[in-house]
């Protein structure tokens, strides 16, 4: 895995414009995804201890102290029922984000580089146009001239906020 | 209003809510349609259905209007229109069911389509045509023109009421459109002038039936308004309360106007004018506004009294003055708003005025409780960081000490080198002398010696430098230590200040309690005054919001139950003016609030009698005479907090349901407080509330489930015992513990003392199982007794000592859990809020130890309730039952009223190797089961009572027809019989009965005649199902 701070293999001539959108690629199960950075707060190693939350679904890892935040750690791969990755050598990371005044962390199997793409390289999908079996597919990647290596082979841009909102809605709707 | 920049996006965000809401309305529509269709509907229920349908139409219209769904809006409006007209013209005929059903079907189709498409699609052409047909069909039920309220003023007034300013600023009535102003002005004048309001007396709408409905509506509305007034005084319920008030005022206004009760209509119109900006948060709920609202409701009550005796609402001397006062106060309120908000000198960006008497030169800002909690959390983070830094400093101090030692060693080394060099030189010099024949030495020094001396001088310098550096380091470290201590002091101060932000003076609540007192005193026609004593106290803002309802309840109780009527007081030689005293004081880390009255007091024997005659949910009296004789005075008063127990002779609007004090106790417990009661007959009663000062901190026990740390809130743990494994046994698939109360009974002054004896058998569960974590065995060093709904449950867990950072002790405090032989003490912990979705799963707060370890503070009562519901933990056995727990028998009990069937079963089962006993009816069966628990019951359904009902142990509350279903139901209500398999054997073959039996917990439902082999197979299977279980007695 490349360092999250190294840049992509974009041609030096085609440097990102001022409108470029920051994004990060990651793996959930066998699938590679990207997400816009503007929905994220931090990319951190997973917490050492996650306290299990009583009677929660299997995709809830637990609550943890990350830096000074009390964070609910979710495993979207299990939520999406994604198959386990082929390789057993996984380097897991968490993306933290603020949702409804609380901090959520999303566990990913592997985190790629933070990179920049031009806005017209992302084809945003409105919720009503998203596939029924993947309502959190927020957009598609349409490389313009040069393919950003980090984003090669991604399934699309995941609507992380929507995904987390769905998780929280389930947690809120089902009481212990 | 919704923003218009991106309507589609905004609308889509509302789509799921729209679908959910509409489905609810459609269900309501179906319900009310069924009510209309009911052939047995009464006039009252039909009128009620009309009212609800009208409200439904209005709600649907508003929702559709907001989301710009024209067809649904039109249909809602049509429904509204028809039902408004029908409210006065009488309910429509049952034939309206057809268009209402069509309306519901149409709405369902539209909502389904919208949900399927995920966007607000317009109706298709066919749908639109159907919509028009439904509208037309509905409108055919509009009453004839002469009974339909035709006044344009009515609609104009509705427009005024519904009119909301387009901007964000509140506008007073003078800002209304001219035509609306005219209408309102007419009303105001009508309200002010008895002459003007006296004119419209003759009114065709006032038929007896309509009047009866109107009086009911007015009575009901006033009652609901009074409830809503109390609700709006609680910040949590304010929004709902205001909405209720607004709806009531709006509804009443229309009806009153139609019937030409101008005073009622004017008051409700004024109410609406204030309630709208209140609801929108544009007008603060000041005491003046609150008092005006109460006065307006009292005015409505006054008018109602006139209307009841078939008079005009203003037909008495007081009405004119009442209206004049009301209007004057209303104008004052508007004027105060106008001065504050519309004054040319005022700054447009000035903050919204609040209803507190804040000095004008002190700027105030509003800070949300959540922000305060976040600030507290940040300070907690700083403290944790400070602890980490202190540890690092200690490491550096240790390193510096090592460094000092290294310098010393270096110095020693240097000294040794010099000594060695000197020694070597001395040797060389002696040798040279010897070789030179003791001639004196002379000549230049050896250059190597010189060089060595130079090197040694440099080493000296280095050592000196190192010493200097070491000294600097030591000074810096000392300075760092002092700075650290100062930092601790500052952090502690900040933490105290932030904690203080959560605190509010208790005195803020007093005006609201005074209002409750005044309203209740007026309603009860008693002269009561509120006396405030004690010291000023502050309480947590969260506690304040929960405390208002219980305090209001206690004040109401004091007036309704405690204080005597004027005649009684006079007879008892008491002054006519009664006092409710509110006393506040500090008590350690708690505050104490006492509400006392100087009324008649409570007779303890009266409470005992009530408890003896009241039956609990288990069907037994709350108290038996033997136990009653043993109760202390305090224990008797505590009976008042048991749900369902009431000492009031009858149920009224304010008392007698037996739920008030139970609710008070529950609310106080929810904020980790306690309530006690004391009373002297003839002198009065006092209720004392002990409350924590802050909810930002709690005392808790740190415990582990596997490797994970959790916290039990100390207030929820009624007792803590070291575990004795010998006391644990397994019965009926659950774990139990037998406790000797002498070992550590919780406070006896608790409601469930009634069910106590020397020994108790409690259901227990391991912490791991409680929180749904893998568990190998019921293990743990301690047993925590947790009280849930008046019963105790045991939780087995390992406790551990924990360091916490709390403001009282600048760095850390430690619990002494785990010290040899000591029962662990609770530790004071700072809590941090967690999101609601964690609260719903049994995590109340989080807390972080001084070592930076996160702990989840558990909501143990919630988790225990869940464990009970899912069958993980048994329901407790009432002690009086335990004492009577019959021995476990080896027999099968055959219950059948037919001797021949009994005999037949006896032969079949005996031949198969079973021991059998027979019972001839339900009572007989129950009496036998009380003597010995059968292994299985073969139970008939229809059994007339043949023997006696007396002395069978069947509770008096049991069903009159104590048939097989009743026996089964009663068995399943009692823990000791819960797992005894029951096979129903009956001639009732209908699946309805079978389903009922299975739902009640029957193992199998067999119909007579049943083949022998099949019967034996079922019996065998039923007994095998519990073969692995160990009976209580076997375990013991």
What would your notes on this structure say?
- The complex is a heterodimer of chains A (176) and B (1036).
- Chain A is mostly beta strands and 176 residues long.
- Chain A has two helices and eleven strands; from the N terminus they run E-E-E-E-E-H-E-E-E-E-E-E-H.
- The longest helix of chain A is centred in the last third of the chain and has 14 residues, at 160-173.
- Chain A is globular.
- The model of chain B is unreliable at 1-10, 145-204, 338-362, 742-758, 806-820, 878-884 and 1026-1036 (pLDDT under 50).
- In chain B, helix 6 (152-162) packs across helix 7.
- Chain B has 32 helices and 26 strands.
- By secondary structure, chain B is an alpha/beta fold.
- Chain B starts with 6 loop residues before the first helix and ends with a helix.
- Chain B folds into six domains: 7-148, Four Helix Bundle (Hemerythrin (Met), subunit A), CATH 1.20.120; 153-342, HPT domain (Four Helix Bundle (Hemerythrin (Met), subunit A), Up-down Bundle), CATH 1.20.120; 369-501; 505-602 and 647-692, Heat Shock Protein 90 (2-Layer Sandwich), CATH 3.30.565; 697-869, no CATH class; 885-1035, Response regulator (Rossmann fold), CATH 3.40.50.2300.
- In chain B, the strands form five sheets. In chain B, strands 8, 9, 10, 11, 12, 13, 14, 15, 18, 19, 20 and 21 form a twelve-stranded mixed sheet that branches. Chain B has a five-stranded mixed sheet with strand order 2-4-5-7-6. Chain B has a five-stranded parallel sheet with strand order 23-22-24-25-26, with helices on both faces.
Descriptive keywords:
heterodimer, A: 176 residues, OB fold (Dihydrolipoamide Acetyltransferase, E2P), three-stranded antiparallel beta sheet, globular, disordered N terminus, B: alpha/beta, Four Helix Bundle (Hemerythrin (Met), subunit A), 6 domains, twelve-stranded mixed beta sheet, 15% strand, extended
């Amino acid at each position: 895995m490349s360092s999250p701070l190294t840049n992509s293999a974009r041609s030096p001539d085609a440097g990102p414009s001022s409108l470029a959108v920051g994004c990060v690629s990651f793996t959930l199960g066998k699938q590679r995804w990207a997400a816009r950075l503007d929905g994220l707060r931090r990319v951190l190693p997973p917490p050492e201890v996650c306290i299990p939350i009583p009677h929660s679904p299997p995709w809830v890892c637990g609550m943890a102290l990350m830096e000074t935040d009390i964070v609910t750690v979710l495993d979207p791969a299990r939520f999406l029922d994604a198959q386990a990755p082929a390789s057993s050598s996984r380097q897991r990371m968490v993306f933290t984000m603020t949702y409804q005044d609380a901090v959520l962390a999303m566990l990913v199997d592997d985190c790629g580089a933070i990179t920049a793409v031009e806005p017209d390289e992302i084809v945003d999908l409105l919720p009503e146009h998203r596939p029924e079996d993947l309502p959190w597919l927020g957009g598609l990647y349409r490389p313009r001239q040069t393919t950003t290596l980090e984003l090669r082979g991604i399934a699309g841009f995941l609507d992380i906020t929507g995904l987390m909102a769905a998780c929280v809605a389930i947690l809120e709707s089902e009481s212990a | 209003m919704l923003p218009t920049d991106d309507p589609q996006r905004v609308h889509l965000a509302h789509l799921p809510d729209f679908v959910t809401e509409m489905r609810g309305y459609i269900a309501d529509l179906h319900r009310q349609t069924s009510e209309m269709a009911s052939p047995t509907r009464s006039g009252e229920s039909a009128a009620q259905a009309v009212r609800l349908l009208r409200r439904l139409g209005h709600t649907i219209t508003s929702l559709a209007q907001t989301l710009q769904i024209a067809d649904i809006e039109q249909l809602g409006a049509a429904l509204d229109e028809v039902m408004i007209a029908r409210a006065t013209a009488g309910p429509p005929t049952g034939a309206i069911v057809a268009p209402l059903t069509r309306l519901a079907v149409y709405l369902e189709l539209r909502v389904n389509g919208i949900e399927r498409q995920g966007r607000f699609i317009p109706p298709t052409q066919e749908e639109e045509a159907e919509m028009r047909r439904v509208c037309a069909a509905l409108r055919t039920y509009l009453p004839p023109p002469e009974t339909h309220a035709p006044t344009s003023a009515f609609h104009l007034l509705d427009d005024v009421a519904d009119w909301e300013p387009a901007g964000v600023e509140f506008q007073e009535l003078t800002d209304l459109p001219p035509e609306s102003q005219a209408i309102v002005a007419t009303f105001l004048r009508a309200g002010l002038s008895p002459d003007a309001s006296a004119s419209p007396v003759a009114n065709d709408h006032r038929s007896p039936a309509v009047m009866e409905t109107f009086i009911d509506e007015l009575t009901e509305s006033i009652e609901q308004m009074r409830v809503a007034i109390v609700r709006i005084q609680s910040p949590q319920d304010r929004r709902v309360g205001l909405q209720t008030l607004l709806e009531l005022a709006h509804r009443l206004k229309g009806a009153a106007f139609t019937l030409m009760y101008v005073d009622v209509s004017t008051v409700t119109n004024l109410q609406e004018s204030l309630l709208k900006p209140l609801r929108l948060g544009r007008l603060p709920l000041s005491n003046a506004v609150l008092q005006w609202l109460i006065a307006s409701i009292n005015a409505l009550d006054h008018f109602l009294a006139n209307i009841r005796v078939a008079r005009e609402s203003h037909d008495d001397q007081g009405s004119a003055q009442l209206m004049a006062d009301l209007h004057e106060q209303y104008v004052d309120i508007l004027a105060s708003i106008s001065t504050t908000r519309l004054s040319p000198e005022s700054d447009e960006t000035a903050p919204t005025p609040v209803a507190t008497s804040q000095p004008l030169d002190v700027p105030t800002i509003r800070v949300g409780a959540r922000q305060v909690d976040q600030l507290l959390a940040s300070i907690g983070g700083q403290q944790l960081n400070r602890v980490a830094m202190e540890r690092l400093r200690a490491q550096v101090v240790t390193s510096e000490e090592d460094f000092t030692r290294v310098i010393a060693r270096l110095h020693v080394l240097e000294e040794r080198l010099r000594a060695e060099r000197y020694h070597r030189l001395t040797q060389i010099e002696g040798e040279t002398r010897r070789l030179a024949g003791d001639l004196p030495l002379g000549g230049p020094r050896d250059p190597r010696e010189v060089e060595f001396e130079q090197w040694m001088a440099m080493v000296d310098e280095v050592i000196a430098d190192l010493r200097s550096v070491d000294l600097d380091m030591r000074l810096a470290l000392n300075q760092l230590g002092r700075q650290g201590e100062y930092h601790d002091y500052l952090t502690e101060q900040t933490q105290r200040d932030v904690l203080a932000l959560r605190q509010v003076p208790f005195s803020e609540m007093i005006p609201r309690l005074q209002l409750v007192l005044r309203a209740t005193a007026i309603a009860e026609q008693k002269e009561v005054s509120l006396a405030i004593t004690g010291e000023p106290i502050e309480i947590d803002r969260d506690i304040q919001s929960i405390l208002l309802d219980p305090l209001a309840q206690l004040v109401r109780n004091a007036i309704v139950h405690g204080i005597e009527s004027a005649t009684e007081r006079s007879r008892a030689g008491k002054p006519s003016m009664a006092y409710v005293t509110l006393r506040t004081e500090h008590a350690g880390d708690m505050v104490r609030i006492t509400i006392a009255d100087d009324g008649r007091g409570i007779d303890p024997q009266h409470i005992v009698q009530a408890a003896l005659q009241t039956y609990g949910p288990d069907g037994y009296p709350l108290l038996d005479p033997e136990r009653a004789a043993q109760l202390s005075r305090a224990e008797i008063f505590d009976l008042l907090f048991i749900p369902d127990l009431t000492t009031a002779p009858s149920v009224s609007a304010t008392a007698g349901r037996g739920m008030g004090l139970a609710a008070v106790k529950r609310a106080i417990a929810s904020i980790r407080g306690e309530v006690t009661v004391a009373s002297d007959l003839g002198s009065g009663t006092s209720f004392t509330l002990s409350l924590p000062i802050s909810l930002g901190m709690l005392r808790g026990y740190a415990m582990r489930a596997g490797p994970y740390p959790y916290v039990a809130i100390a207030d929820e743990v009624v007792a803590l015992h070291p575990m004795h494994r010998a006391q644990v046994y397994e019965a009926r698939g659950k774990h139990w513990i037998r406790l000797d109360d002498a070992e550590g009974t919780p406070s006896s002054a608790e409601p469930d003392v009634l069910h106590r004896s020397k020994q108790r058998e409690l259901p227990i569960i391991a912490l791991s199982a409680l929180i749904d974590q893998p568990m190998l065995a019921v293990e743990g060093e301690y047993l925590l007794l947790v009280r849930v709904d008046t019963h105790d449950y045991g939780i087995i867990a390992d406790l551990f000592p924990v360091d916490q950072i709390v403001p009282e002790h600048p760095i850390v405090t430690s619990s002494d859990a785990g010290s040899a032989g000591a029962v662990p003490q609770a530790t004071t912990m700072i809590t941090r809020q967690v999101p609601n979705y964690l609260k719903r799963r049994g995590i109340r707060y989080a807390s972080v130890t001084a070592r930076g370890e996160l702990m989840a503070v558990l909501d143990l009562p919630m988790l225990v309730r869940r464990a009970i519901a899912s069958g993980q933990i048994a329901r407790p056995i009432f002690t009086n039952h335990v004492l009577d727990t019959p021995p476990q028998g080896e027999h099968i009990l055959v219950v059948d009223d037919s001797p021949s069937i009994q005999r037949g079963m006896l032969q079949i089962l005996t031949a198969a190797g079973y021991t059998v006993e027979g019972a001839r009816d339900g009572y007989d069966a129950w009496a036998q089961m009380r003597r010995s628990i059968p292994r299985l019951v073969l139970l008939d359904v229809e059994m007339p009572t043949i023997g006696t009902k007396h002395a069978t142990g069947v509770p008096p509350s049991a069903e009159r027809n104590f048939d097989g279903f009743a026996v089964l139901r009663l068995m399943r209500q009692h823990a000791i019989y819960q797992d005894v398999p029951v096979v129903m054997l009956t001639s009732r073959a209908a699946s309805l009965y079978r389903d009922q039996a299975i739902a009640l917990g029957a193992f199998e439902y067999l119909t007579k005649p049943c083949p022998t082999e099949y019967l034996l197979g079922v019996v065998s299977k039923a007994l095998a199902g519990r073969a692995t279980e160990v009976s209580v007695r076997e375990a013991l």
